[in-house]
Design a protein that fits this description.
- This protein is α+β, with helices and mostly antiparallel strands.
- A six-stranded mixed sheet has the order 13-14-10-12-11-15. A three-stranded antiparallel sheet has the order 6-5-9.
- Strand 11 and strand 12 form a beta hairpin.
- Helix 1 packs across helix 2.
- It is globular, with a radius of gyration of 19 Å.
């Protein structure tokens, strides 16, 4: 399904995608690139088979931009009002607190999110029916403002080698922002505290080995010239941008999973547009560049 760059008076004022009506498809949601709501919806309709395995039946946080990414956006995690019938509530209790999130199950739910102005989709690392056992572990390599991207690439390879030494099979993603994610698929056997403790041990190890390059704490004052090895996404209520999700930034860059062989030539974490991604998929219809299954997904953690 190609992205339609222009709309005229003879064209319909709505799209029907996966059975859901997308209104105002001509509305420009990014002045950079003159990207429209219709283009965004078409992109998500095409990439739904790749996106849904990560987000379906996972609690979600959305970044909604009803007037476009150049204006005010807001986060939403609970169903609230104005969402379609294919967007469902999910409530759970932890440590004496009650949390309410939303989730979807299929393409119709995804299209309803886009219809209501969602641009970014951030899933939990666990499914609603296995909320205590994450299905992925995520490291976010978040550089300080003065850190060159080449240093982030070196950090990703460093992290990869440390995980491989522990018989894990890490995967790479550019976030559509300024950093990189390194992810490990999990077998949903380890609980959140165990996963978080393991991730922290890796982050602390990197910071100890190269304190001039890495930091494992959130303190912005200490992050000048360093990369924050963010392990904190491996916990209750923490989310991370999903593969193939568009970012609510000028030009609508995309978070794209990559082969490790692509890291060397990667110029930035936000270099891929929606059209770029569709071109990649067209060149590789079998999805080899986006294979996400880990051959070692049954590996249990061993610290040290």
């Amino acid at each position: 399904m190609p992205l339609e760059k222009k709309h005229d008076a003879t064209r319909p004022h709505s799209l029907i995608l996966h059975g859901i009506k997308i209104t105002h498809p001509d509305r420009v949601i990014s002045e950079t690139g003159q990207i429209t709501k219709g283009e965004l919806a078409q992109y998500y309709a095409v990439t739904a088979p790749l996106l849904l395995p990560q987000i379906a039946r996972h609690p979600l946080s959305l970044l909604r931009c009803p007037a476009g990414v150049d204006r005010q956006c807001f986060y939403q995690r609970s169903p609230g009002k104005g969402l379609g019938k294919d967007v469902h509530p999910f409530e759970f209790h932890s440590k004496g607190k009650t949390y309410e999130y939303l989730y979807i199950e299929n393409e119709a739910g995804l299209m309803e999110l886009i219809q209501m102005g969602a641009v970014e989709i951030h899933p939990w690392g666990a499914r609603i029916d296995a909320i205590d056992t994450p299905d992925r572990m995520i490291f976010d390599l978040d550089p300080g403002p003065d850190v060159p991207f080449e240093s982030v690439k070196i950090a990703a390879e460093d992290l990869r080698q440390r995980l491989k030494q522990r018989k894990l099979d890490p995967m790479l993603k550019c976030t559509g922002g300024k950093g990189l994610h390194v992810t490990v698929v999990l077998p949903e056997k380890q609980r959140w505290p165990e996963v978080k403790a393991f991730a922290r041990s890796i982050a602390d190890e990197m910071a100890a080995a190269a304190p001039e390059a890495y930091i494992a704490t959130m303190s912005k004052a200490k992050r000048v010239g360093k990369i924050f090895v963010d392990y904190l996404r491996n916990d209750y209520t923490a989310t991370a941008i999903a593969d193939y999700c568009v970012r609510a930034r000028p030009g609508a860059p995309v978070a794209v999973p990559l082969q490790w062989s692509e890291l060397k030539k990667l110029k930035s974490a936000s270099q891929f547009s929606m059209s770029d991604v569709l071109g990649r998929l067209k060149r590789n219809r079998r999805g080899a560049v986006v294979a996400r299954a880990s051959a070692n997904s049954q590996t249990h953690f061993k610290e040290g």
